[in-house]
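Two proteins, back to back. First:
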Amino acid sequence: MPILPAEPDCYPPSLWDDQAPETTDGEVAWWCLHAKPRQEKAIARELRKQGVAYYLPQVTRESRTPQGRLIRSIVPLFAGYLFLRGDRVARLAALRGDRLVGVLDVVDQASLERDLRQIHRMLSSGIPVVEEPAAPVGALVRITSGPLRGMIGKVVRRSQRDQFVALVRFLGRGATVELQDWQVEHVD
C-alpha cells in the first residue's frame, strides 16, 4: 500500500500569524471537533477544501512489523480530536458528512487558543513530542462508566501501556483495574 503524504496540520498556513479568518457574521470562535475513530485527517481534508480554518496537531509515531521492519506514521497528537476556528457557518460545514461524533463548545476561548499556540510551538520546534494521558500519575479520579462506575482511586502507571491503572483501596489493600482515559474524570 502506498504511503500517503503528511496532511497539513493547519489551514490556512497563516493560522498562527495572529490574523483571525474572515467570517460573514463576525463571531469567530474555536470549536473542538470530536471525530469518529481514524477520521481526523479526512475531516481536515474536507475543511481545507471548503476553506474552513482548522488545527490538527500531529506527531510521528514509529513502530515495527512482526518481521522487524520500521514503520513511521504521522498520527494526530490527540486521537479523535481536531480544532476548528470559524463562525457558526464553518461549524455547520464540519457537521456535514458522517465523520464526527460531535462538536464540543469551548467556554474559555482565550485559554484554548493559548494552549493550542503552545502545542503548535512545541511541535514546530523539532523536538520529539508525545501525548500525555488525560489523568497524570497521582491524580485522584472517579470512574464514570462500566461496572465500577462511581469508584474513586488514584492513577498509577505501569510499564509502557497506553492505558492507565486506577488504584482503589479497600480493606487496607490495593486493587488495580485498567481503564481508558474516557472512563474517568478528575476529582477535586
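And the second protein:
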Amino acid sequence: MHQLLCKGFRFGALLQAAVGPVCLFIFQTAASSGFWAAEAAVLGVTLADLFYVTAAILGIGALIERSSSAKNIFKYLGAAVIILFGISSILGSFEINIIPGFGTLTGTNSESAFIKALLLTLSSPLTIVFWAGVFSAKAASGEMSGKEVSYFGFGAILSTLVFMSMTAMAGTLTGSFLPSSVILMLNILVGLVLIFIGLRTALRS
C-alpha cells in the first residue's frame, strides 16, 4: 500500500509541474488575500480532484469518453467558467464584482476562495476521462488490481494537497513584499492568462 501511495504521489507531482489555471488562482489568492484564504482554496481543489478520481475509478469517465456530444458540452462549459473567472480576476482588481457573493480579488475570504477554487477545478470535467484512461491502463496491463488503483489515485490526490499548499506559501511570501501596484498587475495578468486558457480550451479540437 505504501509503495502504491508513493507511486501515485510521484505521478501527481509530475502533473503539478504543468502550471494551469488552478495553480495560478491559488498563487494569486495567496498574494492578494493571504495564506489561509489560499489554503481554503487548496482544500476546494483537493475535494474536486477527489471527486474526479473517485468518478474515474467508478467508470464514469469511460461513459463520457464514448459520447462526443457530452465531451463537447463539458468542454465548452468548462471553457466558459475559466473565461468568467479570468474576467472576474481583471475586474476584481478594480473592486468590480461580477460574481455575486464571491467578493473582489482584494477582498477574498476563505469561504469565497474555497468555492471559487472548487468551481474552477470542476470546470475541467474531462479530467475524469484522463484519470479513467490512466486507471484503465494500469488495470489492463496487470500492473495493479482495482483496489491498488484506488491507493494509487489517493496518492495522486495527496500530491495535489502538498504542492498546492506549497504554491499558496510561495504566493504568500511573494505578496508580503510586493507593492500593491504589482499585486494589481499580477491579478490582471492572471486574469488574461485564464481568458487565454479558456479560449484555447474552447477552440481545441
